[in-house]
Specification:
The protein is mostly helical. The chain has helices at 2-7, 12-32, 37-44, 47-62, 75-99.
Length: 103
């Protein structure tokens, strides 16, 4: 019961900046592993279905104490894809510019 009270105390608006920062970090790390910006952005699109599956699983386990939605609008998935793609592209550009000699 204590776990339920702790988990749902945060408002979803407080979690959104953290989700965006985490997405940019994951996009940058994927770029370091030679994953392109398009692939990093496409991978970020899996966040929304994963968030809904988590909500459904929590509802099955916790019943009425679980949240009713993931707290992210459907447009949020597109925003996360753009953030991940931009982070991956920026890191790849930075890595390429460090390797090439300045003319």
């Amino acid at each position: 019961m204590l776990f339920n009270q702790f988990c749902w105390r945060l408002d979803t608006a407080e979690l959104w900046p953290g989700i965006m920062i985490l997405t940019s970090v994951v996009g940058a790390l994927l770029s370091l592993r030679r994953v392109g910006p398009l692939e990093a952005g496409a991978g970020a699109l899996a966040f929304l279905p994963g968030a809904w599956l988590t909500v459904v699983a929590l509802q099955a386990v916790l019943g009425d104490a679980a949240p009713r939605d993931p707290g992210v609008a459907d447009q949020g998935a597109a925003v996360l894809a753009v953030i991940a793609a931009c982070a991956a592209g920026s890191v790849q550009h930075w890595a390429t510019s460090r390797r090439s000699p300045i003319t």
